[in-house]
Amino acid sequence: MNLFNLFETITQVDPEFNERVSPRREAIKNMTSFGKKVTLAAMPFVLSELLKKAYGQVPTDVNGVLNYALTLEYLEAEFYTRGAAAANLVPAGKPMGAITTIRDHEVAHVNFLKTVLGNNAVAKPTFDFTAGGTFGNVFTNYDTFLALAQAFEDTGVRAYKGQAGILKGNRVVLTAALQIHSVEARHASHIRQMRRARGGAAADQKPWITGANDSGIGAVVDPIYAGEDNKVQGGVDITTLNAVNGKVSANAATQSFDEPLTAEAVLNIASLFIVK
Question: What highest taxon heads this organism's lineage (predicted)?
Answer without folding.
Answer: Bacteria
